[in-house]
Amino acid sequence: MKRENYFRGGIGFKEEVVEEFKGYYESKLVKKIKDSGGLYKVGNVTIHLAQEFGFCWGVDKAVSMAFEARERWKNETIWITNEIIHNPLVNKNLKDKGIKFIELDENGEKDFSPIQKGEVVILPAFGASIEEIALLEKKGCPIVDTTCPWVSAVWNRVKHYEKREFTSLIHGKYKHEEAVATSSRASKFLILLNIEEAKWVSNFILNDGNSKEFMEKFGLSCSKDFDPKKDLVSVGLANQTTMLSSESLEIAKLFEKTMMKKYGIENLNDHFKSFDTICNATQERQDAVLELVKEDLDLMLVIGGFNSSNTTHLKEIGELHNIPSYHIDCPERMLNSNEIEHKLLNGGTERTENWIPEKEILEIGVTSGASTPDNLVEEVIHRFLNLQKELGVMS
Ligand code: SF4
């Protein structure tokens, strides 16, 4: 694509949008809590804020570039390929600025047909597939590419495997945009959701499993014409940047052992390669929650879009440590002091009653995913404290 039609590092309007951006997403309260070491005591409630949470560098840059694009192309039509990041509030803010979002058709595929030649298209932080980029180039659209460098580092890894004729085993969610974009860079791939699926595949390799059964299980999450007998001889591990890092490591170790057992330790390099592609921001937020759960918490509020993979894993850590953990995307999910609506790990939502324990002193953990702005964290804290006031336990 011609250089003048492709914007990757920036658009040159950062200065113009910096104050507006802060006005949308910064929070004085959150800054105050951070400055106090992460603790905020009001009445009988102590809020423990994770040491790392909220907007990561990649998200900050992607949203800021979308603001810049609006500033630069004031009168042009601008599109985003589905969502800039996985946060409904941020996506709504961009819609309110007149940016259009590519809708999904009845098959769940993005419908690019309304985009006209010359209209500007923003690619999200989690990237876009090779096919999508080719289609937009063909239409002659200026492209604002906000793909996070951590995501493109995974693509490089997958391309490295491809050159060596290794199949990419990607720990991720096969419908997630990032996994779709990553897998589009590999001609042979298999996407594994979790350690259970990885164990299944390991058994298949070691025990010469049944291909038909394999395809029934993984037909939707592998490359076209995948042949499990031939395509699982040499495998390279990669992951969606936002998965649970401990699980990614477990999967990598499992396949290392599997290939050692199958082909012998002396031949391991010809059959197994691995590289940790969990991004720093995801790792830091998970580590911070691992610290947070050491506190004697009564419950944890995990704030982030319901389709945000990294937020889901923060809740998962809370649950693994037996702390009632509620994944909410906005303060209104705390319906009242008796009932909260929240996302479950399996993807559904649930209403839980009596979610605030009746105790004189409450210790509440708060964290948020990498696509959650601080202003939303502030609103959640305010709402929680207001519900406590309604209960009459706070003055
Ligand atoms: S979570 Fe990681 S990969 Fe995703 S945008 Fe942030 S820094 Fe980049």
Write the layout of secondary structure elements.
Layout: E1 6-7, H1 14-25, H2 28-35, E2 39-42, E3 45-49, H3 57-72, E4 78-80, H4 88-96, E5 100-101, E6 120-123, H5 130-139, E7 143-145, H6 149-163, E8 167-171, H7 177-183, E9 189-192, H8 195-206, H9 211-218, H10 228-231, E10 235-239, H11 245-263, E11 272-273, H12 280-292, E12 299-303, H13 309-320, E13 325-328, E14 339-343, E15 349-353, E16 362-368, H14 374-391
Residues 56-59, 125, 148, 150-151, 241-242, 279, 281-282, 310, 370 line the site of iron/sulfur cluster.
Written description of the protein model:
This protein has helices at 14-25, 28-35, 57-72, 88-96, 130-139, 149-163, 177-183, 195-206, 211-218, 228-231, 245-263, 280-292, 309-320, 374-391, and strands at residues 6-7, 39-42, 45-49, 78-80, 100-101, 120-123, 143-145, 167-171, 189-192, 235-239, 272-273, 299-303, 325-328, 339-343, 349-353, 362-368. It is α/β, with parallel strands linked by helices and 395 residues long. The strands form four sheets. It has a five-stranded parallel β-sheet, covered by helices on one side. The protein has a five-stranded mixed β-sheet with strand order 2-3-16-12-13, sandwiched between helices. Strand 10 (235-239), helix 11 and strand 11 form a beta-alpha-beta unit. The model has no long low-confidence stretch (mean pLDDT 94). The structure holds iron/sulfur cluster (SF4). Iron/sulfur cluster (SF4) binds next to helix 3, helix 6 and helix 12. Iron/sulfur cluster (SF4) binds at residues 56-59, 125, 148, 150-151, 241-242, 279, 281-282, 310, 370.
